[in-house]
């Protein structure tokens, strides 16, 4: 009798605990989007080192992924505590979900193509792609400013 009670307790606890464990993210149930501020930027601005880019995710925890950023032009920058010293990453960068900045050094010559910034969220444990996003930046005012045209 006592053995049956213990066995019943183990079964009940197992069923209860299985409902409390979050299943791994299903790619159809996750989404990733780039949040970007400001919507218009020039290196002549003193208020920010670039367009601040932050992953906006659903279906998984932001800290559970590694974020791979790529740009067709310009550079990624880190500007964070402590000290808020800018460090450059180039056309590609990896982050853990914190804000990273995109900027450019030189003003392009005539009629440059739009800048494409991509983001891939990679599960830290499995290496599986959890989602991605893409942002298009268009040139304005003689190629001295970029404006966010579209985020997908």
Task: Give the helix/strand layout.
Elements: H1 2-20, E1 31-37, E2 40-41, E3 51-58, E4 65-71, E5 75-80, E6 85-90, E7 92-95, E8 100-103, E9 115-123, E10 129-140, E11 145-151
Antiparallel strand pairs: 1-3, 2-11, 3-8, 4-7, 4-9, 5-6, 5-8, 9-10, 10-11
Assembly state: single chain
Overall pLDDT level: 84
Which class do the helix and strand fractions yield?
Answer: mainly beta
As for the CATH topology, it is Immunoglobulin-like
CATH architecture: Sandwich
Q: In sequence order, what are the helices and strands, one letter per element?
A: HEEEEEEEEEEE
Number of helices: 1
Q: Can you tell me the CATH class?
A: Mainly Beta
Strand content: over 45%
Number of strands: 11
Distance N to C terminus: 61 Å
- Rg, alpha carbons: 22 Å
How would you sum up the global shape?
Answer: globular
Stretches where pLDDT falls below 50 for ≥5 residues? 9-25
Q: Into which percent range does the helicity of residues fall?
A: 10-25%
Describe this structure in words.
The protein is globular. The strands form two sheets. It has a six-stranded antiparallel β-sheet with strand order 2-11-10-9-4-7, with no helix packed on it. The chain has one domain: Immunoglobulin-like. About 11% of the residues have low confidence. It has 152 residues and is mainly β. It is built from one helix and eleven strands; from the N terminus they run αβββββββββββ. The termini are far apart. A hairpin with a 4-residue loop joins β5 and β6. The longest helix is centred in the N-terminal third of the chain and has 19 residues. Helices cover 12% and strands 47% of the residues.
């Amino acid at each position: 009798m006592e053995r049956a009670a213990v066995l019943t307790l183990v079964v009940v606890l197992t069923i209860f605990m299985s409902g409390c464990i979050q299943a791994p993210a299903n790619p159809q149930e996750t989404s990733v989007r780039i949040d970007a501020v400001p919507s218009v930027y020039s290196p002549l601005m003193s208020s920010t080192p670039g367009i601040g880019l932050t992953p906006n995710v659903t279906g998984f925890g932001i800290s559970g992924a590694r974020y791979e950023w790529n740009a067709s032009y310009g550079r990624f920058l880190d500007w964070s505590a402590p000290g808020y010293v800018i460090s450059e990453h180039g056309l590609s960068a990896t982050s853990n979900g914190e804000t990273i900045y995109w900027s450019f050094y030189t003003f392009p010559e005539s009629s440059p193509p739009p800048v494409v910034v991509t983001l891939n969220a990679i599960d830290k444990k499995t290496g599986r792609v959890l989602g991605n996003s893409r942002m298009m930046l268009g040139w304005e005012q003689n190629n001295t400013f970029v404006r966010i045209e579209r985020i997908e």
